[in-house]
Structures are given as C-alpha cells and as structure tokens.
Design a protein that fits this description.
By secondary structure, the chain is of the alpha/beta class. Strands 13, 16, 17, 18, 19, 20 and 21 form a seven-stranded mixed beta sheet that branches. The protein has a six-stranded mixed beta sheet with strand order 6-7-8-3-9-10, sandwiched between helices. A four-stranded antiparallel beta sheet has the order 2-1-4-5, covered by helices on one side.
Length: 506
Amino acid sequence: MQSIEPLRLSLANITKRYPGVVANRSVSLSVKPGEAHAVLGENGAGKSTLMKIIYGAVKPDEGAIQYNGQAVQIRNPQQARALGISMVFQHFSLFDTLSVAENVWLGLDPSLTLAQVSARISAKAAEYGLDIDPSRPVHTLSVGEMQRVEIIRALLTEPKLLILDEPTSVLTPQAVDKLFVVLKKLVSQGCSLLYISHKLHEIRELCTACTVLRGGEVTGVCNPRDESNASLSRLMIGAEPPALKHQERTPGEVLFETVNLSLEKEDQFGADLHGINLQVRSGEVVGIAGVSGNGQRELLYALSGEDKRAPSQAIQLLQQDVGHLDAHERRQVGMHFVPEERLGRGAVPTLSLAQNMLLTRSEAIAQSGWIHTNTLQAQAQKVIDRFNVKANGPQAAAQSLSGGNLQKFIVGREIDAKPKVLLVSQPTWGVDVGAAAQIRAELLALRDAGCAVLVVSEELDELFEICDRLYVMANGKLSPSIDRKKASVAQIGEWMSGLWESHAEA
C-alpha cells in the first residue's frame, strides 16, 4: 500500500486579535506539496497577517500549525527559513543604504562571503530572468527592481514553502510572465506556494487551490481554474466591481506642461531625461506607460518638486514657471502628488492617519502655527469614510493598515484636497478589485470636475481603462502622445522599446 505524503502546511483554527480588530478568526488552511495555493480576499481581510503568522513574524493568539506532518511553533523568521519557509513581503524589508548583495547577505549563511553572495544573486537572476546588479545601492532601485530583489532573496534560501504577498503588483507584464515561469518550475520541483494577489487572472493561471477570506474568516475554498474572474470577485467581495463610466468630453486649457525638460541622472544607476515635452489639460486623464527604470522615477521627482534642478521655465503649472519651486510650493499653486512608495514617502509609518494628513494638507494649521486637532481628525475621518478605508479610526498608525487600505487613504487624501492638477504613480498597486474600481472612478470624477490628471502606471489595462491620451517612456525619452481610442496594446508594447513615430497625434 502506497504511503500518503503528509501535507506541506496545515493550519487549524488560527486566531489573531489586535486592539479594536480581529485580523484572523479560527482560520484553517491546508497546502499540499507541490501545490500553488491562492489566498484571496479584499484589503483588510487578514491575508497578510495570516502569512506573517506562518513566517513567524507574528505570533497567533490561538490555533495550531503543522509543517510536513509535524506540529511546529514558528517563533521567528529565522526558524521559518530553517524549516524551508520563505516569504516575499508586499512592503519591502530592505535597507536603503546597503547594496542589493548586502541586503540579501543578511538573511543567508554568515559563513558566505559577500563575493559569493553576489555570484549567487547573479546566477539566480540569470536563471530566472530577474535582471539585477548585486552592487547597486537599494536607494537607487525602482519599486519594481526592489520587488525583484525580494524574490531573488527568497529563492536563494531554496524554499519548500514560498509565500508571495502581491509579488507582481509593480512588475511589468513581461516580468510577470518571467516570474510565472519561475514559479511553475518551483512547483514542478515539489515547492509549495502560498500566493496572495488581487489580479484574478494570475490566480486562475497559476493556482490549483484557493482559500477565500472575508473579515478574517474563511468563507470558501475552490479551484480557481473552475471559476471566472466574476465568480472569484463575488466570493471575495460579495459582488462584482461596478463598471467604470468613462464619458467622452472635450478637454480645456493646458494646466500642466513641460518644455524640453532635460536632466542628468543624480546617481549612476538612474536615467537621464532627454527633451521631455508633455501636456495635461483641464478635464483629461493622461497616462505614461513604460517598463520600470526608463526614467519614470526621475521624471516624477522633477514634476513633483522633489528634484528642483530643472530650469524654472521647463515646468509650467497653471501658466506659471515652477521648475524652481519645491513640492510644498507647488501644492500651494494647486498640484498634488501620490508617490509609488506608500510607506516612507506617501505616509510616515509610525504616525497616525490624522497626523499623516499634515504631510500634504494645511487646512488644520492656524496662522499662528497651532494645529486644530479636531479639524485634523475630521479631515482624516472624511477620507476614511469616503474611500471605505478599513482602519481603527483617525488615530490608527499608518503601518497598522493593510497595503491596499493605506493606498486608498493616501489617494483619498490627495483627491479630497480638490487639486487643479494631480500626479499619481501606480494608483492601484496592491488594492483589491473593488478598491481599484473605486480609485479609478474617483480619478475619472476628478477629471470630470476639471482637474488635469497625470497617471504613471505599469498596468496597461488600467491606463487603457481610465486615460484619454497616452505617452510612453523609454530610455529617458517620451513618445508623442496618442489618443487612447487610437492606441493598441501591441503598439504601446512596441513603443516601450523606443520604437515610435516622430510625429505627435493630438
């Protein structure tokens, strides 16, 4: 009689409480060896908490864990890695001042030399098509490149159970395809995957089992390949996301533009900007597509005022030369900005949501400099209510929110300011299908109210859904603009390689 192989992972009645919220309530879950298992749920459903419990980063209040048929208590990530469990976090755990290799070195056998670690990174990167230079300082990486580092770091531990929390949220479609080749190879070699993603088509392609969480509880188990995107949405959020209403309208005057903007890169790993000319008019959404690392980060730094090296006349906001103004001064003129990095730039992790309002909003500050705390609290509560942010009130620390809920809060904070011009980078990174639909609808409503909206996103589907016109960025250059209705995914893909016509389309 053939022996039955034990389950790779078995969770029984896992419960985790935090002040004011139960993150996981009596959750049970089983993963077989060599199985890709999805964990599906809306933002704040308890997915990331559950994964951190398995990885030893969070201690459960109740419940039991079995790994390879043995009862275990995973007290910390070091113990998890020793068991063969590795995790790719949604929010990166990298030290900015260290190189890629030094960051990876921290989690590996201390007997290895830095040169050996660098060689392993290069070999693993080449094996799986995840290009990265081990010597690069982390602070010079784009968010997509940081994601690659986290994935390579996990792969170097030769895991038997690999947990991935939104691993493709900032990867290009090409990079996702490469990653899926990697993951399918790992599964074929007997590695088990726990996969969290809000991209339902990815789950259906990769996974053969799925556990659905809602409000911290298991509400269903299914094979996602037997489901549609619509049925998975219903399992996850109880409904299908509403369809976007994209009404055609005639844009007004130019509110924001660059005039032959050229800048040398500030670090050796960045991209030079070459003669950037873009315009965004009142009442339109303009998108910038492109593969990460082609100058988008440098362009956004210059447009937002974080980089003030541009000639004053090279950036114009509401017919004013603003190249010399900093981010605060540009907000005073009427421009707001949502950066791609949520924690650290979009919000201060340890401060409350109310305090984080002060990063970009000044309505609660009196002329004397005193802060009207009641006004501030009310402001934050308004954003929480309007954008359905799951948080324990305005006093909740930013780092206590799930990634998707924090994204909703940051986007909501800037939209609620009623800007004349809004720059948004990766607006729906890591948010569930319902929240993504809401954010996109709010951006369109802002556009319909006369705002000029500029969106930088690596999700082509998103750009085609909400934009009126598109640009493509490649090698620090900007393509001519093209009307979204006249563009195709294939054409935009070609343009991402720098292959565009020399004439603009209005």
